Amino acid sequence: MPELPEVEIVKQSLQKSINLRKIVKVVVNNRNLRFKIEKDFEKNIKNKVIKNVSRKAKYLIIELENDKYFIIHFGMSGTLHLIKKNKNQKRTNLSFYHSNILGKKHNHVLLFFDKFKIIFNDPRRFGFFKFFKNRSTLQKYLSKNGEEPLSPLFNLSYLKKNILSRKKNIKNILLDQKIVSGIGNIYASEILFYSRVHPMKLGNEISIIELKKILKYSKFVLRKAIKNGGSSIRDFKNTDGNEGYYQQKFKVYNKENETCPNMLCISKITKRVISNRSTFFCENCQK
DNA sequence: CCGTTAACCTGAGAGC
DNA sequence: TGCTCTCAGGTTAACG
Question: What predicted TM-score, i.e. pTM, was given to this entire model?
Answer without folding.
Answer: 0.94
